[in-house]
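Q: I'm a student working through a structural biology exercise. My instructor gave each of us a protein and asked us to get a predicted structure, then write a short paragraph describing it. Mine is Malonate decarboxylase holo-ACP synthase. I'm not confident about reading structure output yet, so if you can add a plain explanation after the tokens, that would really help. Here is the sequence I was given:
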Amino acid sequence: MVEINPHDLLKINTVSALSDGLPSWANSIFPNSLTVVVRRSPMKAGLIPVGIRGMKREHRFATYVDPKDVLEIITPYELVEKKAWESVALERQVLPAIEALPKINEVLQDYHWGISGSVGFELATKTPSAKMTSDLDLVWIPKHSINKQKAKELLKRLNQFGVHADLQVIQGNNGFSLEEYANSTSTIMMKTLGDPILVKTPWLE
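A: Happy to help. First, here is the predicted structure for Malonate decarboxylase holo-ACP synthase. I'll explain a few features afterward.
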């Protein structure tokens, strides 16, 4: 099977590929995109853990898909490599989280970074999912660790464009918030395939 990681977007062939039926709020939304996001959770009986997102924060639905039903994999990093924000409809480019991306790209030009969350979903599917108030969820696979001062400086640069941007640091199947790390005085939360854990030093050297 092709490598699939948390935050990847999977285009599937049909609604019936989902292991569970759709909630009512998704019936009119999901069939338009047929795209799910890979959850950070263990596989179950060979099935990939995925989620469906709606326009509201509470509209989140966890389910599973069979790898054989996946037509296409879109990673957050491909969206950056292709500068996907350039192909968004003009009326959507005024959203702060999308408008900021060319400038964010300049700040992160030396980083292996990607776009996740509602903005990443919209860039990948052309389905309106970001709002004027949407944060910018970014992911970053680091080559090396950075100290808290450098983390604060980087976040300051990312957050000067009128939208709140946070970078989730990806290390294998684990991830943590750079913002939480930068502001921590003791432990921070590390997301894993199982339950989150508290760690003092999140970097894997």
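A: Here are two points you could use in your paragraph. The longest strand covers residues 165-171. The helical segments are 30-33, 76-81, 96-99, 101-107, 117-125, 148-158, 178-183. It's a good idea to check both against the output above yourself.
Q: Great, thank you!
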